[in-house]
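WARN  no MSA supplied for this record, continuing single-sequence
INFO  ligand: manganese (II) ion
INFO  echoing inputs
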Amino acid sequence: MTLEITPIDATLGATVSGVRLDALDDETFAAVEAAWHAYAVLVFPGQHLCEEAQVAFSERFGPLERRVFKIHSRDNPATIDLSNIKKDGTLWPASSETGLLLSGNNYWHTDSSFKRVPAKGSALTARIVPDTGGDTAFADMRAAYDALEPAMQDWLSNKIAVHSYAFSQGRVGGMTGVSEDEWEALPPVEHPVIRIHPATGRRNLYIGRHASHIVGEDERESRRLLERLCEDACRPPRVFTHRWSAGDLVLWDNRCVLHRGLGYPANQPRRMIRTTIAGDSEDIKA
Ligand code: OGA
Ligand code: MN
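INFO  complex generated
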């Protein structure tokens, strides 16, 4: 097998074939990691990894986050089941706690930006895919930064945003599944609006649905500005959408990519398993 990396028709993303992620030698891993830094999102079709293999592959990039919410309950605390399927096989209605929690993923975001040390990357595998919908879209925040007017780049260069899960999830509901202890562990946190990628040195926007407002600025106005930045950023040629097949794994760089789910009919089952690579606190300095 030879590793084949095919760029996707956007400023980010590549499809990778000719590799088995559950049998990755060090040399091939280094090539995959280099491609990840270059393309920010890698699509690996048809891998069909078991959960243990997904965890093992993800751990090559660093220690994994442990899940924060009991509602995502799994045997392995390093995996999150982003599924609308109950234990008895029936589906959670869209209006249920789980349905509302999942619906938050349909807004542009970067995983765990509401944590003090946000995630470095995420690996998502498709297990059960709906007949229609359920695609995931990705947006390149490096190219989005590059596309800003120099005056805006300048103005944002020292700005800090407040990221808060209570703020973002409050907008879509589904808050009661989070216990008081869990809320206490998730106070609002601050991150630079512009980050410098530790591996590439490229600047990028670090925004998304958890970003509530900018420190020291009018709350409502800066919230509107963040929303407008996000809207402008997440447009072609900076976006691509992945149509899942069961067995696919997609690995993205949360430090410089936003993503969102595009939704699917509530009467269709969908099971996705995520592993989340923890950030280094070094990464968050801009
Ligand atoms: C995620 C996520 C979107 C989707 O896994 O972090 O936001 O399409 N997923 O399931
Ligand atoms: Mn996500």
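The chain has eight helices and 15 strands.
INFO  checksum written, moving to next record
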